[in-house]
Amino acid sequence: MKLDVRAFGLSVGIIWGASLIIFGFLAMLAPNYCSDFVRAIGSKYIGYSASFPGSIIGGIWGFIDAGIGGLILAWLYNKLAR
Fold first, then answer.
1. What is the reported pTM?
2. Residue 20 backbone phi and psi in degrees, to 5
3. φ/ψ of residue 64, rounded to 5
4. Distance separating alpha carbons of residues 82 and 76, to the nearest angstrom
5. Which class for 65: exposed (0-12), middle (13-18), buried (19 or more C-beta within 10 A)?
6. Which of 25, 35, 66, 75 has the fewest Cβ atoms surrounding its Cβ within 10 A?
7. Alpha-carbon span 55 to 63, nearest angstrom
8. Sign of torsion, CA 16 17 20 21?
9. Mean pLDDT, residues 44-52
10. CA 36, CA 33: separation in Å to the nearest integer?
11. What pLDDT does residue 21 have?
12. Sorting pLDDT into bands at 50, 70 and 90, what band is 80?
């Protein structure tokens, strides 16, 4: 069975991007809940922080990053699958 490379990359990107937006909003509303996670990811994604614009920026970064990673993973899986 082969994976649809574009669909897999898109779905992984959407899930990770939406997760980062949700975590950013949660850290903004409840700072003790996941602010350490947002700070850790924010050290890798420029502009990601516990704020409304920071959460959107992080979601965009996450979508791009995980989308590319999903594309590579699905492509590699298809190349190695029998």
1. 0.90
2. -65, -40
3. -65, -50
4. 12
5. middle
6. 75
7. 12
8. negative
9. 94
10. 8
11. 96
12. very high
